[in-house]
Write a structure and sequence with these properties.
- 2 copies of one chain form a homodimer.
- Chain A has 247 residues and is α/β, with parallel strands linked by helices.
- The mean pLDDT of chain A is 95.
- Chains A and B meet through helix 1, helix 2, strand 2, helix 6 and helix 8 of A and helix 1, helix 2, strand 2, helix 6 and helix 8 of B.
C-alpha cells in the first residue's frame, strides 16, 4: 500500500470572494483527507458563475483522483452547481427518485418547486446522504458535490468516505523552539538535504512576546520523520535553545 | 469612473493544504479589496512547489488586473516564492540594495546568509515595506508578493495600496429573516429577474434554534440595491415573516 491518492477542492461562492463569509470548510477537508492518506494538492475559490465552475471542475477532475466542491446546491436562484456539474460531464440533470423521496418525507406539503430543484442531479450520479437537512449531495464520476453550510458539508463528506480509496498515510511530527527562523535556516537546510523524503516546513510564531519557529516534518516514512527531527533537536540542544514543545 | 478592476489571490503553502494551519489571509484580502472597488474573482491554494507557483502566477496575471500571493518569502529552504516569481517573469533574482539595507539595520551582526536571502527579489521589482519584521514584500509587474504571517501580510498589503487602481465601488445591503430558503426562493427569483444588475445571494442560517435566510443584494448601482431589497422586504412583511435584521 504505497499509492499516492490526490484531491482538489473547489469552493463555490461569491460570499467567500466578497469577504462576507469566512470559509470554514477548507481546514476541515484538508485535515480529514490528510488523515485518510489522501493528499489535498490544490484548492480554488470560484464565483457562482456556471462557466467558471465548469472550467475548474474539468481541469481538476482529470488532474487528481478526487475533486470535492462546496456550495451552490440549495433551492435558490444562485444555486447553480448541479447544472454546472452536469454540463462539465456533458450530461443532463434528471429528477432523482430517491432524492425526491427524501425531500417529500422531510418537507411534506411544504415541498414546493424551489425545493424540488434539490432532487435534480446529473444523470448517473450517486447520492451523498445528509441527515442534517435531508437534501442530498451527490457524486458524479470522481467529483463529490457538497453543500456550503459547514455542518451539512461535513455530513456529506462523511457519506463520501465509503467511495474514497485511501492512500499511504503521511506521518507528521513537529518541534517548536524559541529560535528565529533565520537562526535555524542553515542547519535546517542541511537536514533537508540529508532526508529528501521528508518535507520540512518552517513556520515562525510569537508566544509571550518571544519569537519562535515551529518545524514540521512530514513523510510517508515514519523512521525518516523521527530521525530528521532527532537531528534538529540535537542541534537545538547543542546551541541551548529552549524547546517549547514536541508533538 | 465605472471601471472594473479585478484581482486573484494565490495562497502558497503546504501547511494550509495539510490542515496544519488555518488560512487567515483570504478573508482580510477579500474584504480590503472589496472596499476599494476591486473584485476578487478567484483564489487558489498551491503547494510550495516551484512549477505549481509559476503556473498559477502566469495563468492568473494575464487574466486579472492584479495578483496577490501570500507565503514563502522567509529565510528557510521552503521559502521559494521569490525564485518562482522571477522564473514566471523570465527574469533573475538580484540582491536589492534597499532591501539589504533594511535587513542590515534590523538584524545588525545577526544578518547571516539565510536572512540575506530575503533581500533577493526579481529584477525590476518594487519593494513593499513591512515595518513589522523589516524584510520587505515586493511587486513584480502586476503581482504583489506578500508574507504568509497575517500581521506581516497585512502590513505589506497596506504598502501595496498606493500601487492599486481602485474600481467602481460595489454597494451591498442585506436583510435576514426567519424564513427557510425554500419558502422565499420563488419570490427571490422574480426579484432577481427584475433587477438583473443586482447580484442577489441567499444564505441559510440557524439562530436560537430557528431557521432563517440572509439575503444579500450587491450592485454598483446603489438605487437598484435599495429597490430590490425594498421589494423583498414588502413581501416578507406581507407574509408576516419576522425580520431579524437589515444592514
Amino acid at each position: 500500500m504505497n499509492k499516492k491518492v490526490t484531491a482538489a477542492f473547489i469552493i463555490i461562492g461569491n460570499e467567500i470572494l466578497s469577504g462576507r463569509t469566512k470559509d470554514q470548510n477548507l481546514n476541515f477537508l484538508a485535515t480529514s483527507l490528510n488523515e485518510m492518506g489522501i493528499g489535498l494538492i490544490e484548492v480554488r475559490v470560484v464565483r457562482d458563475i456556471e462557466q467558471e465552475i465548469i472550467n475548474a471542475v474539468n481541469e481538476l477532475r482529470t488532474k487528481y483522483n478526487y475533486v470535492f466542491t462546496s456550495g451552490g446546491i440549495g433551492p435558490t436562484h444562485d444555486d447553480i452547481t448541479a447544472m454546472a456539474i452536469a454540463k462539465a460531464f456533458n450530461t443532463e440533470l434528471i429528477c432523482d427518485r430517491k432524492a425526491r423521496k427524501l425531500l417529500e418525507e422531510h418537507y411534506g406539503s411544504k415541498l414546493n418547486e424551489a425545493r424540488l430543484k434539490m432532487a435534480y442531479i446529473p444523470k448517473n450520479s450517486t447520492l451523498l446522504n445528509n441527515p442534517v437537512s435531508s437534501a442530498p449531495g451527490f457524486k458524479t464520476g470522481n467529483v463529490f458535490v457538497m453543500a456550503g453550510v459547514p455542518k451539512i458539508m461535513q455530513s456529506m463528506f462523511l457519506a463520501s468516505k465509503e467511495h474514497l480509496e485511501t492512500g499511504q498515510k503521511t506521518h507528521s511530527s513537529s518541534i517548536s523552539a524559541f529560535i528565529a527562523e533565520g537562526d535555524i535556516a542553515l542547519e535546517l537546510n542541511k537536514v533537508q538535504n540529508q532526508y529528501d523524503s521528508v518535507e520540512i516546513g518552517s513556520y515562525p510564531f510569537i508566544k509571550d512576546g518571544k519569537l519562535g519557529t515551529s518545524l514540521v516534518f512530514r513523510s510517508t516514512d515514519k523512521s525518516q520523520v523521527r530521525e530528521s527531527l532527532k537531528q534538529i533537536k540535537s542541534y537545538l540542544e547543542k546551541i541551548q535553545t529552549t524547546i517549547e514543545k514536541e508533538v
